[in-house]
Amino acid sequence: MTGVPASAAGGSGAKPVRGGKLGTAAVNQASLWNIANILTMVRLLLVPGFVLLLFHDGGYDPVWRSFAWAAFAIAMITDLFDGHLARAYNLVTDFGKIADPIADKAIMGAALVSLSVLGDLPWWITGVILARELGITLMRFWVIRHAVIPASRGGKLKTLAQGTAAGMYVLVLTGPLATLRFWVMMVAVVLTVVTGLDYVRQAVVLRRKGLAAERAAEAVEALQTPAGTAVGAGPAAGPASGQAAEARDAAEAER
After folding, report:
1. How many CB atoms neighbour CB 167 within 10 A?
2. Under 8 Å between Cβ of 78 and 42
């Protein structure tokens, strides 16, 4: 995340410094009606529009399918820009942090489910992708108290492959292009599964480290008061001091 410098946050009119650290105060200073949030809202509004265009005239009219593809393409393009603009120009807001991932999953989920309803895409593909996205979202909440799972390069490739494959299925393609879109979707499915397993591994590791750090911090905090009392206790403090030292060593070893 990037943030608004102190001068900008105070209303001096100075331009934000790109690449700066973003604090809580800076997030609160960003206006809700900024270009990043507007793009996110446009993407949300495109979801029902895309579905209506896709199913118009029974869902098999090549012209209306082309219109649906255009709406889908615009939604995917806004996905590329809104997050970048928010970070680069200090436009991060609480609304954006919540709405952006919802919009991402809404447009992709709408495309996959609609294509499966029309019989163009096997339901098992839709199930695998949606299960992965839902599972990773729940897993992020599972470990959010300890750490944030960063977006990986594989995850970005997965998103690109999914968007490309789904877009090709929205269009009415025949011959070699129809065969090509199948293999592009297979690549997307493989990336979906592989990156999902990697996220699971990261989540387990981060949670274990977080729990270990919490236990170590609690042990050190518990030892601080008895150790301080033992210092001023005179000769009688010897056994207590020794026990505190042993407990401290045990905590360090656990850490």
Report:
1. 18
2. yes
Return the DSSP state at 235: G
| Alpha-carbon span 192 to 45, nearest angstrom | 26
Contact criterion met (CB below 8 Å) for 182 and 164: no
Nearest residue to 72 (alpha-carbon basis) of 50, 57, 56: 50
The predicted-structure confidence for 30-42, as pLDDT tens digits, reads as follows 577 888 888 889 9
CB-CB contact of 146 with 209 (8 Å): yes
Reported pTM: 0.67
Six token digits for residue 251: 């905590």
Structure tokens at 218: 């609690």
Question: How does DSSP assign 56-91, residue by residue?
Answer: GGGGT-HHHHHHHHHHHHHHHHHHHHHHHHHHHTT-
Mean of the pLDDT values across residues 69-79? Answer: 91
Report pLDDT for 52.
96
How do residues 89-105 score in pLDDT, each as one tens digit? 777 777 777 788 788 88
